[in-house]
Amino acid sequence: MKFIQADVLKQKPTDESKLGFGKIFTDYMFTMKYKVGQGWYDAQIEPHRPIAFDLATTVFHYAQGIFEGLKAFKNEKGEIRVFRPEENFKRMNRSAVRMCIPEIDEKLVLEGLFELLKIEKDWIPTSPGTALYIRPSIVATNVALGVHAGTEYLFFIILSPVGSYYAHGLAPTRLLVEDFYTRATVGGTGEAKCIANYAVSLRAGEEAAKKGFDQVLWLDANEKKYVEEVGSMNMFFVIDGEVITPMLTGSILPGITRKSCIELLKANGYKVSERKISIDEVIEAQAAGKLDEAFGTGTAAVISPVGMMEYKGRDYVVNNNEMGKITKWLYDTITGIQTGRLADTHNWVVKL
Ligand code: COI
C-alpha cells in the first residue's frame, strides 16, 4: 500500500485524563477514491491534514455520506487489540447500499486499517477508559448540484485518541424522553449510519442540553409510544429480571456494542428480549419499583448507566441514580475483553 510520509509529526498528548472525545487526531489517515467506471482506486496512507473541496461538492448539499465508529486498545503487554472491526465494515456496506454509495472491499479496508494502526501504535492511549477511536467514512465528492447519487467518492479512516464520551465519565446520564421531534421512521434511514441522521437529532439535543439533560431518548415516529434509541447509544432496560432492548424495526441503529451485550447476556444465562417496549411500560415499571436498571450501549459511550429520565414534565429516577449490577458487569466484561484483561471467549478481538 502506498505510504506518504509526513514532513513533521505532531506532539502526542501527555495527559491521558484530558483526552475528551474526538478533539485530537493522529498523524496519518487511510484514504481511497472512487469514480464511476473505475471503481475504488488509490488506496493509501497519507498525512492527516485539511483537504480542499469545491463548495458545490455533493456531500455538502445532499448529505450523501456514511460513517462508522470502532476502537483499538493497547494493553500493558503492548498488544494492539481491535474490537469486532469486521462488523463495522459489514454495517458500512449496508449503510452504503441504503445511501446509493458504492460498496467497499471489506478485506482491503481492514488491511488498510491494520496497517494504519501499526504506524500509529504510539498514539493508542493505555489508561483505563481510554482508546484509539477509529472513524471510517465515505462521502460523495463530485461537483454537481443536481439531486443524483454521486459519481465520485472519498473513503477515509481517521484516528483520535479518546477518553470518556460524556464529560462526566461513567456517572449516570440524564435523558429527556422526546415526544415532539422525530429521529427516524421505518422506511427512512434510521438503521443506516448516515451523516444526516445525526444532523436531524441536533435541534432536540440542543433543547435538552439547555434543560440540563445529557441526551434525548427517541420514541417511534408514528405513535410516539415505543422507545427507539438515544442517538449515540442503543437502550436497554432491566425490568423484573428481564433485560429488554428495543427490537430492530428499521429505524434503529443495529449497534455492535448492542449485539455484543445481547450475546454476552445470553451466554451468561440472562433472560434477554429484543422486543417493542413502550415508554409507558418503562414508567409503570419504575412506579412499581420494578425498573431495576437502564443503560445505553455504543462504541463511543461503551456501557453508560441511565440515572434519570424526564417524560412529559415528570422525573423518573432509575436505581437511585446509581450504576446497576448488570450495567457494571457488562461494562467490566466488554472493557475486559477489549483490553485483554478477560479472556476473549467470543473471538471478537483482532490482535495486531
Ligand atoms: C459511536 O459510538 O461510534 C458513534 O458513532 C456514536 C456517536 C459518537 C456519533
Automatic annotation (TrEMBL):
Pathway the protein takes part in: Amino-acid biosynthesis; L-isoleucine biosynthesis; L-isoleucine from 2-oxobutanoate: step 4/4; Amino-acid biosynthesis; L-valine biosynthesis; L-valine from pyruvate: step 4/4; Amino-acid biosynthesis; L-leucine biosynthesis; L-leucine from 3-methyl-2-oxobutanoate: step 4/4
Co-factor requirement: pyridoxal 5'-phosphate
MF annotations from Gene Ontology: L-isoleucine-2-oxoglutarate transaminase activity; L-leucine-2-oxoglutarate transaminase activity; L-valine-2-oxoglutarate transaminase activity
Superkingdom of origin organism: Bacteria
Signal peptide: none
Sites of N6-(pyridoxal phosphate)lysine modification: K193
GO terms, biological process: isoleucine biosynthetic process; L-leucine biosynthetic process; L-valine biosynthetic process
Record-stated family: Belongs to the class-IV pyridoxal-phosphate-dependent aminotransferase family.
NCBIfam families cross-referenced by the UniProt entry: ilvE_II, PRK13357.1
Protein name (record): Branched-chain-amino-acid aminotransferase
Organism: Candidatus Borkfalkia ceftriaxoniphila
